Amino acid sequence: MRKQTTIILLSVVLALFCNCQGNNSATPSEDKGAKAMLQGIWVEEESGDVSMRIVGDSIFYTDSTSMPSYFMIVGDSLVMGSGTSYAIVKQTESLFWFMNHNGDVVKLQKSTDPVDETEFVHDTPQVMTYTHQVKTDSVVVFNGERYHWYIAINPTKYKVVKRSYNDDGLEVENVYYDNFMHISLFQGANKIFSSDFKKQMFAKFVPENFLKDAILANMEYSSADAEGFHFNATLCIPDEASCYVVEILIDHKGQMRMKAVEY
Q1: Which of 239, 201, 240 is nearest to 219 (CA)?
Q2: Residue 3 is inside which H or E element, if any?
Q3: What is the DSSP letter of 204?
Q4: Burial of residue 112, with CB atoms counted within 10 A of its CB: 0-12 exposed, 13-18 middle, 19 or more buried
Q5: Enclosing H/E stretch for 179
Q6: In this predicted model, what pLDDT tens digit does every residue of 138-172 receive, in sequence order?
Q7: What is this structure's pTM?
Q8: Residue 70: alpha-carbon gap to chain centroid
């Protein structure tokens, strides 16, 4: 009898423990009513400038380069798909105030002007990239020998997502297509070097966090000397001045080495 009682007590304790654990791990549910009130176009209270349009669980922006953002309303916060959240200060059917990442209160009101819909005529965001292959070449004479170098910049479909903040202080995502580069070097009719370059090849010279958000933006011929032929690869964060330059040296025997030049 004592054994049975012990088993029963242990079962009760285990059930209570599991129940407590389940309650602790429960996540707040989405406020679908609050999300429903957000459907429509929202403009700045003071200026009347169009800020965003909300359809379903997506926020659309007026510029043609920002991707639509997934969002939820959880508790008193606007939560973006990336996990970034903004405290809601006030929400009614016609008003939506929230605190942006700078700590400023953004005051929006729902638009009743049909003309504001024209701000969202673009169907899909534009993706920043070269739209076609770019080729450059030239002839260099060194020590009486004639060399011909050739560079091709090729657009790819590999996407690089850049997160930034718009005028309202909301996180937005812009998408860029990366490029790969090609260098060929000839001595007369003899090809002494030919290779493609992708941004991952420069990981030794560029910090990992920077490289993840960067694109291989350009490749240029620099000079020729006794060491060989110097080319500069530029890796940049799109639409920013932050870049790394890596020198590619191809010697007269076609051997290649790299080194960081500047930041």
Answers
A1: 201
A2: helix 2-25
A3: T
A4: exposed
A5: strand 171-187
A6: 999 999 999 999 999 988 888 888 888 888 889 88
A7: 0.65
A8: 15
